[in-house]
Structures
1.
Amino acid sequence: MADLGSPLRSLRPHSPTLDQRPGGKGAYAARALLSLLAVSALLLYFASPAGGMLSWPGVGVSLLSFAPLLAHALTEGNFLLARYAVQSFATAVTVVSADYLLGAGLLRLLPRSARAYNAPLRAAVALSIGAGLGGMTIFFLGELHRLKGPLVWGGAIIAAGLGALILTNRRAWKWAFSFLNFLPRKYWWALALFLPALMLHAMDLLTPVAAFDSTTYHMAAARFYKETSSLRYDDALRYNAQPHLPVLIYLRYWLLLGDDSLAKIANLELGLIVCFLLIAESRMCRVLIGALIAFFFVGSSPNFWWVTKIEYMDLALTAFFSGGVLLLYDNLRRNRPARMVLPSVLLGLAGACKFLGLVFVAFALGIYLTIVWTSNRPRWSLLSHIARTATLMIVLTGAPWWIRSWMNTGSPVYPFFSSLGSADAAQTLAQGTALGLGRSLQVFALMAFHLTVMRPFQFSDSYSLGPALLLLELAALVVVVRTRLKLRLNAGETFLAATVVACFLFWFLTGQVQRYLVPLLPIMAFLFLLLLQALGYRQAQPRVIAAALIVLAVHAAVLASTVRSTGLPPPVRYSDKDAYLMSALPYYKAVEHLNREAKPEQRKYLLAAEAAHYYVNGPAYGDWFGQYSFFWLASGVTSEEAMIRKLKGAGFEFILVDRVEAARNFLVIRRNGPLPFTESLYSDGRYSVLRIQ
Amino acid sequence: MKLVIRHYPIAVLMAPLLILSSCVTKEEREQPAAPLPPPYIDKLFPAETTRGRGFGIQPSGESAIAVTGRGFQRGGTIRFNGNPLPTTYGSNIEMTALVPSSSYGEAGTIQVSVTNPDGKASNSMPFSVRGDGEVAPEITHLSPASAVAGKPMNPQPDGSSALSVQGSNFDSGAVVYFNGVPLATTYGGPTIVTAIVPAPLLAKPKAARITVANPDKRKSAPALLTIK
C-alpha cells in the first residue's frame, strides 16, 4: 500500500524529545530520586489497606502451605490433576499455534510496507488476528446454527493448514518465528523467581466458573449458545445485544477442550499477546532490562492478574486495544501515518469486545488524526485515507454485532437509541456514576494515590489496580523537574500520553471500576519505559525499580490467586467439582435443589440471585436489566403477595431468592418467614428455592 | 532459538502425543470425590486472655480470634470446645471468628479447632483464659526512652526523675525495677505505671534493664533505657 504521508515535523523541531535527551549532569540524581520514590510507593502500598489484603509473610506462607496441598492433588488418583493439566495446556498450545500460523500467514500476504513492524509486535498482531478470527468463526457458525465441537476443531485445523501453506518457504518460516530471537533470555533468573506464582496461575486457569459477571452473563451466554448450537439472542442475559467477542473466544476454547472450566485457558493466548506487546515496547525504546520492567510494571497490578484468571472481557480488550495503539505509535515513529490496515483491524477487534472498547478506540483514532493533522501540512487525502481505512476495518469487525443487535432490538447500539431499552440505558448510566469516589478535582488529583491504597471494594472491584499509575506519575514528575518544565514530546509520545489521559478522564467521569483501566496498563508501561529512557536508563540499569516491581508483581500474582482465595486445588472429578462449587459459591446448593425440582423448560426467576444464572438449567430470568428486570418486578408492587402474583402471571413457576439481598433491594420482601403463594423446597437461611402455587 | 525455529513443526507434532499420553478419561472423572487433607491450625491470635477481658475488639465491641494454618476451606467453621462460632473465611491459611464474652468468662483452657465443609476437623489448639493476675506483664513503651547521664530525665517539680512504663497486664501493686533495683511505683492502670528514678541510678552512661513485676511475682521481659 503506497505511503501517502509526508515527513512529519516534530512539534518543536529544535527541542530534544524523550528519546533524545542525553544523560549527564543531574541524571544520576534524578535516577536516584526515582528509585527512592519507587521504593516509597512500594512501602506505601504494603502499608495500605489494599496491599494489606495479603501480608508479605502471607505470600510465603500461602506458597509454602499450598505446596503439600497441590503436591497431594497433583499425584493422587494416578497423577490425575497433573495429567489433566498437561492435557489441557498441551491442547491449548496446539490451538494457540494454529491461531498463530493463520495470523502469520495472513500477515505474510500483506505488502512488506504494511507489515514492517518489529518481530515481537508482528507476533502480537499475528496472534491477535488468529484469536480474533477464531472468535468470529464462532459468531458465524452460531448465526448459521452450526455451533458444534467437530466443526470448530475443523476450523482450527483448516486455519493452521492455511497458515502453514502460506508460510511454506523457509524464508517465510524464519520470518514468522523470528520473534523467538528477541525473547529476553537473559531474564530467566527473574522468571525463576516468579515461577511459583506462575505455577499457581496455571492451577487457577483450571478452576471452575465462579466469578460474578461470568456466572451472571458472560459464561451464561456461552452456555446458552452451546446448548442451542447457535448465537440466539436472549434478553434475559445482560448485555446480550452488545458486542462480546471474548465470550465467543472463551466458548471456542470450551468446545475445543470439552470442559467449561477450561474456557478461561483462552487467557493464555490473550496473555501471550500482551507479553509480545511488552517485549515489542522494550525493543522500541532503549532501556536496559526494559522487557523486565514492562512485564513487572503490568504484573504489579493485582487487578491485571485477576482478569487473567476469569472469563471477563477486559483481558481481550487489553490485548487488542494496546496492540492497536502500539501499531499507531509505530506509524508515527516511523513517519508512516497512512499504514492503517493492521492497526484498524486490532482496534476493530477491541471495539468488538465491549462498548467501552469502542469508546477507547474512538479516543485513540481521534487523537491520532489530530496529531497527524497538526504534525503535517494538512493533506486531506492523507486524513481521509486514514479515516476511511480505519472506519472500514472497524465496521468489518464490528458490523456483525451491530447488525445482530439491530435485528433483535431495533438499535445497533442497544440499550441506547431504542424504545425497548430506555430503562436499561438509564440503569447503565446510573450504575456507572454511582461507582467510585466521586468526580471532584481533588479526587482526580489524588486518584493515583487512591488506586494504590484504597480497598478495592470502594470501586466495586475485587482487587486494586495497584501502584502502576502512581509510579508513572512519579516518573513523569521527576522527568518534568529534571527538564525544568521544558519537556517536549514527539508525535508518538504525545499520542500515547494523550490516549491514556483521554481514556482515564472518560473512566473518571463515568464508571470508576478499576478493571476498566487494565487495558491502559501496557500503554502506561511503555510511557514508563520512555520516561526511564529520558532519565538515562539506557546506560544504567534500573535495578532498584526492577526489584520493587518484581516484589509488587509476586505479591499481586499470589494475592489474586483463585486457588489461594478458595483454599482448594482445581477439581478434575465431577464430584470434586461439585464440592468445589459448594464451597466457592454460597448459592450452589440452592441451585442444585432448583435443578432437581424444576424441569429445564420451566421458567425460573432469580430474585436478587442473578449470579446463579450460569448454573441454573433452562430459561432463567431476573437481573437489573432486560424484559423481566427487578425494576419491572418492583414497579407498582406494594406487597409480597402482589409480587408473587406478578411472577405467576408472567409464567414463572419457580423462584430462587437471596433473602438478604432481596430484603435490602425490595422493601416489600421480608428477610425471614415464608413468602405467600409459594411452597418452600429448600432454605439454608440465606438462599431459598420456592415453587409458585 | 534457531534450533527451536527449525524444529518447531516437530514440537507442534509432539503436542498431540502429550495430549494422548496424559488423556484423562470420562470414567476417571466420574469416580467418587478424592479426599482432601484435613485442615491444620498453626497459631491462634491471641492465644490467651484474662478472664472477662476482651481481645481483638471489633467495631461492634465483640471479641474476635484469628486462626492461621493451612487447608482451610470457604464455609469452614472455627469451634470453641466444639461449639461453632460465627466464622469469616479469609483464605486457605487464615480465618477469623467472633467470640461471645461467655466463652472467656471463666478461667480455663478452651480447645479451638476448625471444621471444613467436608466434615474434616483440624487439630485442637489450646486457648488459655487466665484468672486475674495470671498473665505476665508486658512492656511496650518507655517514656522517655533515653536519658543523659548526670541529668534528671522527665524532671518533676521536686527535681526527681520520672519514668513512665506502658504495656499490658499490669496489676495493682506492680513494681518497676531498674537493673534489679525496685523503684517507687505509682499504679496508673493495667496499661501504665510510673516510677521515680533516684539520681544516682542516672549518674553514669549505661543501658539499664527496666522490668515490671506484678504482686504474683510474674515479671515482664526487660526493656532497655539508654543513658548516654
2.
Amino acid sequence: MTVRETPNRGIRYPGLEELAKVAFLRVMAEDVDTAITKTEALRATALRRPRARAWRATGSASITKNTWTALTGFDTVLYDNNGQANLGVNNDRLTAQTAGLYLYVGTAQGSTGGSAMGEGRISVVRNGAAPGTADHVDRAIWAGLGASTYTHSVWAVFLQAIGDRASLAVWWNGTPAGPATYSSYSLTSMMIAAQ
Amino acid sequence: MLITTSEGIPYPLAGDFSAIPNHIQALALSLDGLLPTWDAGYQAVVKTPSFLLRASGAGAAVTIGNSAQLPVDTTVFANAGALVSNNYQQAASDVPSWWLVGCYIALTNGGTVTANTINKVAIAATYSWGGSTFTPGPPISSVVVANPATPTGAIYGEQTETNNGGEVVQAVGVIKLFGAATVIARYVHTDTGAGATRASLAGSALWGMRLGNV
C-alpha cells in the first residue's frame, strides 16, 4: 500500500487499490478533522487577543513618603482571557502567557487625608525594574495647588516573553508626614502583536 | 468534476465512478490548499503591524520656546516598517492606514527650573512626495495646541514641571499614515526659568500599532 498525503497538512487519502478498504477513507476524514481543529485554534486566538485587568476593589495600601513602593493586594480580576492574573499566587502583577508587544495602563487614587500633597508618581514596572530605567515608566502629577486626593494614570509598551510580568509602583512627596493611602488601583494589559 | 459555490471544493458527478480515486485526491488537495490560507489570515490578525523604538542616549538640550526630536535609534520590536533616521517609517508599499501611536519621554533639566510650568511632547507624521514634505491631515484625537516651536497637525501631551527629579511626559492618539510616511516625536520646552533647558533621557520610547486601512 502506498500512503499518499497532501504537502501542507499531511492529509492522507486512498488510491485505487485502497478504496476497497473503508478504513482509509476514515483515516482521511480524521486527518481533515485534525487539520481543521488546528485552524479553529488559530481563529480563536485571533479573535481573542490576550487582555486582562486586575483591580484592588477593597482596602488600601499605606505608602511612605519619598519611597517607591510596589502596589499589591489586587483582589478582583475584571477580565482575563489567557491567564495573566493568578491572584492566589501573586496579587501584584500580570504575567504574559504569550510572547509579544503589550500595552499596559495603570491607574490609582492617592490621598493624604486632608493635607495638600505635593507630587505623586505612578509607574508601570516590567520585571521589577529599578526607577529611572527604561522598564520603569513613571508619570507624575503635581498636586501642589492644594489637592489632598488625586487620581493618576500611566501607560507603557513593553516587549514581553512568556513569563515576563508587569506591576504598579507609586511614589509621593510633599508637606504631609504621611503615610498616604492608595486605593482603587488597577493594571490593564492588552497584547498589541504576537511575536 | 464540479466545484462547490463558496470555496471551490471539487466533487464528482453522479456516475463518474471510474475516476473516484482522482476525485478523492482532488478533494484532499483542495482542503490542503484552503487551510493554510485561512491560517495565514488568522496569524496576520495577531501579528498586528506595530513597533516599539527606544532612544539609547540623551537628546539635545533645548532652551525656552524650542523643541528637539527624540533620538530613537534602537528597535525593540517592529514587524512592519522600520526605524529610519530617528523616525518610524511605514513601508512604502503599505496602503494609507490609521495608527494608534504614543510616546513617553523622560526629560532632565538644566539651569534654574520653574515649578508648575509645562513640559510638552508632540508626535507628528510627515511624508515626502515629489521632492516636497507634507503633513497628513490632523489627527482624529487629542488636543492640538498652536505653538511656533512645534509641528502642526500633531498629537500633544503635557506634564506639569514638579521641579523634582525630572519628568516623564506622554502622548497618545490616532494618526493617519500614507506609504513611506514617518512618525516623529519631539519634546518642547516652555519653562521661563533663567537658563533652563530640557533634554530627553535614554530609555524614552516611541510606539505604534496599526488599526486598519483608511
